[in-house]
Write a structure and sequence with these properties.
The protein is of the alpha+beta class. The chain is about 25% helix and about 30% strand. The chain has 6 helices and 9 strands. Strands 1, 2, 3, 4, 5, 6 and 7 form a 7-stranded mixed sheet that branches. Strands 8-9 form a two-stranded antiparallel sheet. It starts with 11 loop residues before the first strand and ends in a 6-residue tail after the last helix.
Length: about 220
């Protein structure tokens, strides 16, 4: 480090990860009890401080990997939060990142090791500092993008039914969708492929299983639902 900017005050920079999953028809958030002061024991998002040798995105990727053990996670920056009194310990500016994962991909042993839980958004408790504000902004971001980006597939298994896909959209949007119109639109999208597999667990009659074709989407990345 150089001796430049010595006349200016220093602040800490952190990232906070807003990790969403979809389970039992609901959008859920990964939170845990804060294990450090200030705020020890309060419900909190999972985060970490930015190291001198890493960028914001590198810090967010490292933090998410430490938490989930997963790589290539869907991740988008939500925004920066820098209220003077947001952290009673020190002057901390944080940058929030929203991530989407398939709940079943997350090793439950790792979840317990970190002491985090999946909590439905409709019963979300009061979180540490401004973390509830971060979550609300992340949901707003998802709702703006869900109809123009194929982000919902990050919450589903590789093979899914149209009912599961519809429920993801409804969970993100917070409202019901007309089933007939939804299926009609989905069947016109080339990169949502029907497979030869049938789901006989969640449907007595058996429901066709679909998948998201990333290669087809990369050739024509337009999406409107």
């Amino acid at each position: 480090m150089t001796g430049y900017y010595g006349e200016h005050s220093k602040v800490f920079v952190s990232v906070d990860c807003i990790v969403f999953g979809f389970d039992q028809g609901k959008l859920k958030l990964l939170i845990g009890r804060r294990q450090m002061d200030p705020g020890r024991g309060e419900w909190s998002l999972y985060g970490g401080f930015v190291r001198q040798d890493e960028s914001l995105e590198e810090c967010a990727s490292r933090t998410l990997y430490n938490l989930t053990g997963l790589q290539d996670i869907y991740m988008k920056q939500v925004g920066a939060f820098g209220a003077i009194d947001r952290d009673p310990g020190e002057r901390v500016i944080t940058v929030a990142y929203c991530a989407l994962i398939n709940v079943n991909d997350y090793d439950d042993n790792l979840r317990r090791e970190h002491g985090v839980e999946w909590v439905s958004l409709d019963i979300l408790p009061k979180l540490y500092s401004d973390h509830n504000i971060m979550v609300r902004k992340a949901i707003t971001l998802l709702r703006r993008r869900v109809s123009t980006e194929p982000l919902s597939f990050n919450l589903l298994p590789e093979l899914f039914t149209l009912t599961q896909l519809q429920h993801v959209y409804e969970a993100i949007l917070g409202e019901e969708i007309d089933k007939r119109n939804f299926r009609k639109r989905i069947k016109t999208i080339d990169f949502i492929e029907r497979t030869e597999y049938i789901d006989k667990l969640s449907s007595k009659r058996g429901a066709a299983l679909y998948r998201f074709n990333k290669n087809a989407y990369s050739l024509e990345p337009t999406f409107k639902l």
